[in-house]
Amino acid sequence: MDAAGWNERYDTTELVWATERNLFLVAGTSALASGRSVDLGAGEGRDAVWLAQHGWQVTAVDFSDVGLGKAAQLAPARTSRW
User: Fold this and answer.
1) Using one digit for the tens of pLDDT, what is the confidence trace for 37-81?
2) For residues 28 and 64, what is the distance between their CA atoms, to the nearest angstrom?
3) How far apart are CA 63 and CA 40, in angstroms?
4) What does pTM read for this prediction?
5) Is residue 26, in this structure, part of any structural domain at all?
6) Which domain holds residue 72?
7) Does some domain include residue 81?
8) In a 3-state reduction of DSSP, which class is residue 39?
């Protein structure tokens, strides 16, 4: 799917995906000290926001500027690190 397809998918008032973090992300980072992270394919940002909540400096990247816009709205409600 291209950027236009993802923008169309995310172009709703509701979130397409859950706001809770991916459990594989939690398992994969639990033993790591926080640092810098790049979330490729960040979508609506749930994992990037969770990482930021836990002290990571995160760069979120996605084809969809609509998805990243939703991530930017989600982040301030959850963290001051966005």
Assistant:
1) 999 999 999 999 999 999 999 999 999 999 999 999 887 766 654
2) 25
3) 9
4) 0.81
5) no
6) 1-11+33-82
7) yes
8) strand
- Answer whether residue 23 is part of any domain: no
- Quote the pLDDT of residue 35: 96
Report yes or no: 54 and 80 within 8 Å, Cβ to Cβ: no
What backbone torsions phi and psi does residue 45 show, to the nearest 5 degrees? Answer: 90, 10
Q: What is the rounded distance in angstroms from the CA atom of residue 43 to the CA atom of residue 69?
A: 9
Question: CB within 8 A of 71, min separation 6: which ones?
Answer: 42, 43, 44, 45, 46, 48, 49, 60, 62
Is 59 among the domain residues? yes
Please give the Cα distance from 76 to 32 (Å, whole number): 24
Q: Which two tokens stand for residue 5?
A: 């397809």
